[in-house]
Design brief:
By secondary structure, the protein is α+β, with helices and mostly antiparallel strands. The chain contains six helices and five strands; from the N terminus they run αααβββββααα. The protein has a domain of 82 residues.
């Protein structure tokens, strides 16, 4: 992801709100041809990260702005909060035997850390790159992470997202905490 260094530059909320909605481009190559990148993320987020690692985008400059925007957003998805309840954060679990992503739960910030053989860590955002950070290749962990995201954000882990719904999710700045460092 070397060529994407520097894309994590922060923008103020005012600037984010003024930005236009992205006109997402359909891919014209590979197994996801005909789909937009927001669709691909909900279908095969592992492929998205792999495409960055393998520099697919160096020769496909027409997609580079979308890739950069999405790379930042998938790492900083705002945790749904309920007004009048305690603030929540994401607790990520690592499988003790396989050292791969195991689970993510949204928990109150005051809940004590998990005790037991499963290692956990917390973030104040949902970060879709966590499974790949734990283990470079973890297709099932990435699929599990998307199901968990769908559960917490859309209320149904099995929801079938339309192209419009995928794109709308990534167009809405309220879905992201771009100021987050954790």
């Amino acid at each position: 992801m070397q060529f994407l260094l520097g894309i994590g530059e922060r923008k103020s909320k005012r600037i984010q709100a003024e930005e236009k909605i992205m006109a997402w481009t359909e891919l014209n190559f590979g197994k996801h041809s005909g789909k937009t990148l927001p669709q691909v993320i909900f279908i095969d987020v592992d492929w998205f990260f792999h495409s960055i690692d393998e520099n697919y985008w160096r020769t496909r400059k027409e997609y580079i702005n979308e890739v950069k925007e999405l790379f930042n957003k998938v790492r900083k998805i705002r945790i749904p909060q309920t007004e009048g309840t305690e603030r929540k954060e994401a607790e990520y679990s690592i499988h003790p035997s396989y050292n791969t992503f195991s689970n993510m739960e949204i928990v109150p910030i005051t809940k004590p850390p998990h005790q037991g053989s499963t290692m956990t860590f917390r973030k104040n955002v949902i970060d879709l790159m966590v499974p790949r950070t734990i283990s470079q290749y973890d297709k099932s962990g990435n699929k599990r992470m998307i199901k968990i995201l769908k559960h917490y954000v859309f209320g149904d882990e099995n929801i079938r997202l339309t192209k419009a719904k995928c794109e709308s999710f990534f167009d809405n700045p309220d879905n992201f905490d771009m100021e987050s460092d954790k």
